[in-house]
Design a protein that fits this description.
Helices cover 45% and strands 15% of the residues. The chain contains 10 helices and 8 strands. An 8-stranded parallel sheet has the order 7-6-5-4-3-2-1-8. Helix 2 packs parallel to helix 3 and helix 2 packs parallel to helix 10. The longest helix is centred in the first third of the chain and has 18 residues. The structure holds ligand 3NM. The site of ligand 3NM has 16 residues, from helix 9. This is Thiamine-phosphate synthase.
């Protein structure tokens, strides 16, 4: 039971920040992520498709130390073995990654599994298969995932109306369009470039978080 309560608390996030492999070149990834954490990011994902698994493991270790200091869950993109090795809180999988059932058998019941979805059908499948949360996007066109068609806020509204598990809106979300995404029914937002590509990741996080919590309280 304790594991279930802990899992629910970890799903209580509002602002999900993902490391941005192409945005960190001139800055230290840990410094940028720490600024995001100071600004209120309450869940962090390590996503880097360009480095070796050994390098990923090292980054995961250092991010685990950082996120633990802030008491924030750490999710690893794509790699359940790396998640286990660093005692991360879960993994995030795309539609072409390991099937959820395989990831679950590796990770067990007490770690989070998130799935990227781009249609309501994919969302239904992920929910039925036992995902803990889903990503809904890309809401807007984004250079972080080039070539992928935007699903627009209409998919956010569909997910809000139908999906019972937590969902996080992602893709091209900025301080300028966050309100539109919240209006469509999102209660959790995720951003990469708007945060880690900014000169002020802490300020951007604070702004996004204020918009999310302000919306929740109906103001
Ligand atoms: N996944 P930005 S969109 C990593 O729709 C990722 O599943 C998406 O980056 C999805 O905030 C996306 O810079 C990129 O647009 C998000």
């Amino acid at each position: 039971m304790k594991g279930v309560i802990l899992l629910r608390r970890k799903l209580d996030f509002k602002l999900y920040v993902i490391t941005g492999e192409s945005y960190h070149s001139s800055r230290d990834m840990l410094e940028v992520m720490e600024a995001a954490l100071r600004g209120g990011a309450d869940i962090v994902q390590l996503r880097d498709k360009k480095i070796s698994k050994r390098e990923l493991l090292e980054k995961a270790r250092s991010l685990r130390d950082l996120t633990s200091r802030y008491g924030v869950p750490l999710i690893i993109n794509d790699h359940p073995d790396v998640a286990l090795a660093v005692n991360a809180d879960g993994v995030h999988l795309g539609q072409d990654d390991l099937p959820l059932s395989v990831a679950r058998s590796v990770l067990g019941p007490h770690r989070l599994i998130g799935i990227s979805t781009h249609t309501i059908e994919q969302a239904r499948v992920a929910e039925r298969a036992g995902a803990d949360y889903i990503g809904v996007g890309p809401v807007y066109p984004t250079g972080t995932k080039p070539g992928r068609q935007a699903v627009t806020t209409s998919y956010v509204s569909q997910a809000a109306a139908e999906i019972q598990i937590p969902f996080v809106a992602i893709g091209g979300i900025t301080t300028d369009n966050a309100e539109e995404v919240l209006k469509a029914g999102a209660r959790r937002l995720c951003a990469v470039s708007a945060i880690v590509g900014s000169n002020d990741p802490e300020g951007v996080c604070r702004n996004l978080l204020e918009q999310i919590t302000g919306w929740k309280s109906g103001s």
